[in-house]
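Narrative progress, year one. The postdoctoral researcher (J.K.) led the effort to move from monomer predictions toward full complexes, under supervision of the PI. The following entry was the first complex the group processed end to end, covering 388 residues in total.
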Amino acid sequence: MKPYIREKSTFTFDEIPEETCFEAGYLVTVNSGWRSVTPYVDADRCIGCSQCYLYCPDGVISMDGKVPVLDYDFCKGCGICSKICPRQAIEMR
Amino acid sequence: MKMNINALDRNEYFYGHKACAGCGGSLAVRAALKVLGERTAAVLPAGCMSAVGFNFPQLCFGNNAIISMFAGTASMLTGVEAGLRRKGHRDFHAVGFAGDGGTADIGIQALSGAIDRGDDIIYICYDNEAYMNTGIQKSGLTPYGARTTTTPAGANIHGNIRPKKNMFEIAAAHDIPYAATATVGYLNDFISKVEKASKIKGTKYIHVIAPCPTGWGIPVSDTVEVAREIVDCGLWYLAEYENGEYKLDRDPGEFASAENYLRRQGRFRHLTDQDIHTIITSRDRKWEKIRKEWK
């Protein structure tokens, strides 16, 4: 399980919990608007070393077999993946 | 130390958080939770990671997580661990993620008490070398010469005049079962240490360097590179303390240029050659001791 985005983003007053507990992994907004540059993976160059997956601070890169898949909803465009890639297979543009 | 990247938990437990782009602290939290897994209760004091992780109703932890008082990370960990044990749970971890201020300044007595009691907890200090969440104020772990809003750089005083507290050796001086230092630049090493800590009974302390692009004045894409450089140039070291012995994990041998490391950061840009010389001299003195006394 990972935190995932829910359909509903507004709350009425009586839905707000009185206790200090609330469901884990409850996301309502995305982070894609923070980005000024976007990473794109060149699948031909990629060797599937998983370094981008390992070093992404937001964890938006997952490995589908040997190919990195990006979740553009939550990518902030920091460019760490592009710098860490040993084959320069990730381009920021 | 070896780590198999494919053996790592593919699930994300710290996702969709509102940390700045390129945040080193969030990388440390994410990597540690991947090792510890879903059956982990995380305790976070006031600080960046609680500010970015819990924006109701956006709750970014996939496991149980709770915010503690600033000073009480370790004491709340004690309670969480004891409570879960009392309720009959066996297979779980209680982990704390505190920043450098929450560890070395405000939370130090709670940490000291927890180590003294020998509670079965993991305490991870992500060290970004100042109070970044409130706008870059000096903490006990801010290094010599760094400019913060409370140690500004002027004509007479060039940033922070005090050296960094040696938190790793302070924890080790309690005769803790396991203490280690790490950096987000070498995640394999950090992940192996978290894994090792999760298997040891008693209090575990891990101190991980987590660069903050906002506070350090570096481009957001350079976090990992800078976190590697700090180890390569000898201003930080990767070490462990176990069974009463210090052990150095990585000796860079010939140091990379400390000047390059310092000059690339906005917080050190004002340093004169004399200041840099002071930093290098104190580094060499420390390393002489490390190489002589540690294994």
